[in-house]
Amino acid sequence: MKFGVVRFPGSCDDVDAQLAASRVGEAVLLWHADRDLQGVDAVVVPGGFSYGDYLRVGAIARFAPVMEEVIEFARAGGPVLGICNGFQVLCEAGLLPGALLPNVGLRFLCRQVDVDVEGECAFTHGLVGERLSIPVKHTTGRYYAPDPDRVRVVLRYAPGENPNGSLNDIAGVCNEAGNVMGLMPHPEHAVDELVGGSADGLKLFASAAAVLSHA
Amino acid sequence: MPDVATLPSIEEAVALGLTRDEYALIVDKLGRPPNQVELAMFSLLWSEHCAYKHSKLLLKTLPTEGRHVVMGPGENAGAVAVGDGLAVAFKVESHNHPSAVEPFQGAATGVGGILRDIFALGARPIAVLDSLRFGEPGSSGRSRYLLDRAVAGIGHYGNSIGVPTIGGEVYFEAPYEQNCLVNAMALGLAPIDRMIRSAAAGVGNVVVLFGASTGRDGIGGASVLASAELDEADGDKRPSVQVGDPFAEKKLMECSLELLERGLLVSLQDLGAAGLTSSASEMASKGGVGIDLDVARVPLREADMEPFEIMVSESQERMLCVCEPARLDEVLAVCARWEVHGTAIGEVTDTGAMRIYRGDELVGDVPVTALVDDCPVYELAPARPRAPLYPAPVATLTADVSVREALLALLGSPNVASRRALFEQYDSIVQSRTVRRPEQADAAVLVLPDGSALGVSIDGNGRRVAADPYAGTIAAVLECAANLACVGAEPLGVTNNLNFGNPEKPHVAWQLSEAVRGLGEACRALGVPVTGGNVSLYNEAAAGPIYPTPVIGMVGQLPDARGAGRLGFAREGDAVALVGWNAAPSLAASELSKLRGEPLPDALPEVDLARERAVLEAIRDAVRAGALSSCHDVAEGGFLVAVAEACLAGSVGATLDLGASDDAWTLLFGERPGGFVVSGRREALEALDVPVEVVGTVGGEELKLTISGETTRWSLGDLSAAHAALAKLFP
Asked: Which residues of A are known catalytic residues?
């Protein structure tokens, strides 16, 4: 099992995602300018401010050379996880429905939140019904989709926990095929009780490893 | 010298901040009047901000040696060894005047500047802390605006660059109304054998400027903003505030670290105050060499910039390095990979001079020693003020309130209220090292690769220093040491930022000298070296000087990150004890006396430093041994506030019985260094080798206090609502 974590200029949580993934498998960094996924089994598009995100968030990263490969990989059924900025990038790339808007408070917010797993996908296999404690940290995390009934929701903020005004408390979604998932909370920052406040986030990485090993 | 036909006059020198005597000295050193380029360079390097001309003699009295010290004062930052071949670099710096003029960019670029100091040493920045001072948020819209924008600016920069902001502190006092303080501290981690100094070396080596292009922003920032008092028309100085680009800095940081990892550099230096002038001449000075620079090769944002503008521009996100000519192509290739401009702009010479060219034309030629070493240093003329310098605070609490009301008022007062609304705007967890987040413990805790951890704290209560500069500064050092003890950390080094008024005024000179004396005294008593720091003077406005505010940053280490202490009560049934409490807490300069509108006293009670050290060591040992469920030092608001904070952090109540007291208010709300509220098993607490008084039990849904036969109760909800007062400022 080999994870690839994309590194854009401006990625901030790339090394954290690599550390988290390396707890359940091998994990390498994928340079934004290279059209080479190094034969990985799953891709993580990490958090941060790709290319500074001075334009609409994720709008430039979506055109990075590495993203052409990621898009092809995803369309072929490869598991792709977009975290925070990665979620924004996957929405811009058309791999996930909807968009992320500025938080209702218009401020950056860093906070541990509870999220409920509601849907099954490559990264939530066997987790439906669980409540996970995972931190969020973002300015632009308010999920919006014009037709939310058609969106496959996999994570929802627990009652009273919605930090950003997301539509229907949506915290994470997946594509129709269930191999591409995006979420605003940071599972890579909840893989070790010592620094994560919980180890719940590790379950998402373990899910992908388990699904692939049974494939 | 070619083309010096339009030599600037002495009046222009004065307008740039030099005195007439200093100008005469420059003429003497050069043997001729300086031209425009040279005068611009002198005006910056001889400014207070760069030359420390009013503080250098005092700073020499501080203890700087210690067995852990890897780099001391004089480098871009101090550094201490933390085992495993690693060092932690750290430093605090101010960006006060830029933040008073434009708080968002002022604070943001303050963070950017201190981060560059850290990675200029070859250390990867791992944390930021901030120390802020504003006027009263309840009565001043301007202070609320400055607070809001400064916090947003710090978050904007730190969050975007992927360095966690793990702690900090903020105080609100009327004397900061016109002159806010924004100090930022950064820490970095580096293998000791890969750290690099800034001394240029190797005649014929290439000087490479890399990072952002150079524009007209920040011209004269060090002299015009940082080394003079603010006045009403300071909106006009806004163009002197630089604009930050954290994305550019992120690339610059990764590029710098990769250059060092590949061993491509001889030396490295960031561009901060005074831009290229300061960086290049400091590199030359430390290396005992000369440097030739060609300003025509500097990438510009505006084509028509004059040589002096290029030399003094404070455009952000730039670095200067020296490499061997054979390595230049590799250096430029690394820059290209990170999409950073890299340009060879000069070379190291044996002339001992800074020679500035525009193409083939020599436009400035100054001996390095004249620029860097020959700035006159001034003795202060301190005099203790005969009349109070500061008006009494405006009373917000009447004398007849009950203990119940007083605790709620203190918890809701700006200096005590929860900082949650602020620190939630900062990413405190990126890089996966943060073991204790804000409000979980008295100090921030970061795990290191070997499983040990750093404890970090920053503090400095200006009101106490205003009352007694010597004892107040000792109290600030002790406060940091207490915070470290609460997580089990032993101090390794201290950095400091001395924020004071105009040192040419005798009473400010007195505050400054007394504060530095206290700083040295406290650090010697604790056996902790001062590894670096910064001085910010002229923090005055028409209404007078700020409270004298030495901000202390302290870094320590504990052997096992898993054993780091917490401040919140953790277990029902635990005993609560007051540990190390001096027999006589005092309301002098306390939060309660501020709320009551009492004038500042003219002295604070004396502190026995040897005794304080023993208490700190006992607390640290107990935390490391796992003997305590929680540990919190008694600070602003006194004992009862500390207990309430421990209840709120642990979401559990407590029952206290303090017996009979003939001075209940002083006991409950008095302040003095050296007190701790701890919880744990009764026998473990009573075994501590310092004064311990068990005063109650953890448990329930309320705080219940009995003193002199009278019982008062607060529900956790009441305490929490009062403590959340600052959240209203961030709707």
From this structure: 84, 186, 188
